[in-house]
Specification:
Oligomer: single chain
Number of strands: 8
Strand order of the largest sheet: 2-3-4-5-1-8
Helix content: 25-40%
Strand content: 15-25%
Number of domains: 2
Largest sheet: 6 strands, antiparallel
Distance between the termini: 31 Å
CATH class of the largest domain: Alpha Beta
Order of helices and strands: EHEHHEEEHEEEHH
Length: 212
């Protein structure tokens, strides 16, 4: 599979065929993981970052996580390729514009992506069309188990999985749905929804995640 193949079709999560897809565009679950014995990326030298990227890339490609898995070297990828991956929600904007050895593994139907050397050593992501959080969880936990059987993840008996940002320590999980709510915006009710979401301890983000 080549990156250009993604431009010839919509990813599985973009097809609008999942449950409640008239409102819920997609469901996403993300797990943050770091490899034991390596510094967090903010403390890595260029050589250490490169060694880590090679180790994780080889592990992902050898784990048979999807029928076809494409790995993109983002350090050498042209800007247009990185922009495509951002627009398809397969990498973050920060990952696209960062420096140093980094990459992303993408499953054939784009439901799976694994960012390597983003904020953490690995960011596992499953995207599904419509409201499919349970199905996404079943899928991502299998990926997590498969990789953890080959990589020693940084884990503390009290704190859980260790991450670069303290807010992710523990499970390292983030669960989200992308909603299409035009009527709330048109009627001026969207701010009420934002306030209610905050009261429920939910975070509201834009189309491209944190900061948007």
């Amino acid at each position: 599979m080549k990156l250009s193949d993604l431009t010839n079709r919509a990813g599985e999560w973009l097809r609008g065929s999942g449950p409640m897809s008239e409102i819920v565009i997609s469901s996403r679950i993300r797990l943050a993981r770091n490899v034991s014995g390596y510094h967090f990326l903010s403390k890595c030298t260029r050589h250490q970052r490169q060694a880590l990227e090679h180790k994780v890339r080889d592990t992902i490609l050898g784990a048979n996580l999807a029928p076809q898995t494409l790995y993109v070297d983002l350090e050498s990828a042209p800007d247009i390729d990185r922009q495509l991956l951002v627009e398809r929600h397969l990498i973050s904007k920060q990952h696209a514009t960062a420096d140093g050895a980094r990459g992303v593994a993408v499953g054939q139907d784009e439901s799976i992506s694994i960012m390597v050397n983003e904020e953490d050593h690995l960011r596992l992501q499953v995207l599904r069309s419509g409201l499919q959080l349970e199905e996404a969880w079943d899928q991502i936990t299998k990926i997590d188990d498969a990789l953890e059987s080959k990589l020693d993840f940084a884990f503390h008996s009290r704190f859980g999985y260790l991450t670069a940002c303290p807010t992710n320590v523990g499970t390292g999980i983030r669960v989200s749905v992308m909603l299409h709510l035009p009527a709330l915006k048109l009627t001026g009710e969207i701010e009420k929804v934002f306030r209610a979401a905050k009261d429920m301890r939910l975070a509201v983000r834009g189309l491209y995640g944190e900061g948007t």
